[in-house]
User: Fold this.
Amino acid sequence: MTRTFRLRLLALTGVASLAAGAGSAYADQSSTITVGATVINGTRTLNVKDVTGAAISSLTLGAGHGGALLVNVTDVNYAHTGYQVTATMSNLYPYSSGNYQFGQTPIPSSAVAMSFPGSLFDVANLSTLVTPLVHLTDSTGLFALANLDATVTGTTNSVSTLATVTQKAASSVLNELPVRVSTGAGGAFTNPAAVTGQSGTFNPTAVDVLDGTSQSLGELLTDLINKLNTGVVTAQNLIDDGLLDQNSVLAAAASALGLTPDQLSGAQITSILNGVSATVSDLQPLTALGDKVLGQTGSYNTVPQLSLTLPAQQPAGTYQGELTLTLMDK
Assistant:
């Protein structure tokens, strides 16, 4: 996936649900149920704004002062992959009457550099998509002879990890984030890119702006398990919280008793749901490789600054070029 954003410089790119019906069109009698599947393929977007968060389409640079941008990547139930935002810069060409004057002396792209004062970034409204494995044990004595000890798969759930963390506080929680965020190293745009519609061959210098590296192990899993277990002690609690399917619990309990679920009495069902302890003990692997995080929702920001160093004896006038930011999964 690639998303790009172009900015003119002036100088003086879920969770989807699938359903299938099971039944027979030709039988005299049929029964149809809905089967749901979770597909993690949400959205990841690149947003470039001014430092107040307002929309921006151009930025003016001048000798002695630079211009700052707010670069944002936002995930909404997006697959658990990292990302990289890079920037390329065209030359700044003399510009008049709405046209680039390619035949005149430009300000070279190498005169523009990107830096990250303070390496500032923040992460906001982060949550993680996981499928928990739930351990069921009897705490009522109902299964004293059967020794209920079963594990069932919970429902994919979004667990809030944090509201906002800034770069200054991030060091204490970096291992608990599904995506580890860091700013780019910055530098000059040594080789130019083309402006829109410009012909020719270009091999532009790509400057790293923002990186997100996916994480799936370590403190993140412990943190998520603890959050899923907070205040939850029975199977009914997990069912009410949407983490567990009631039928799965009853099937496991009936199996421990040597029964089928339909043989359970109403009193037994009530006792099972409210008396059986249900603890999130692990997070279901998504693949054989053991990636236990399905995806994430969150907003990641950094504030790069552009500076302009004018070449000696640059002709006076108005110049214009394009800064292009590109978002790619990695």
Q: What stands out?
A: The two ends are 9 Å apart (CA to CA). Residues 1-18+37-116+184-212+306-330 form one domain. DSSP finds five helices and 22 strands in the chain. The first strand starts at residue 2 and ends at 11.
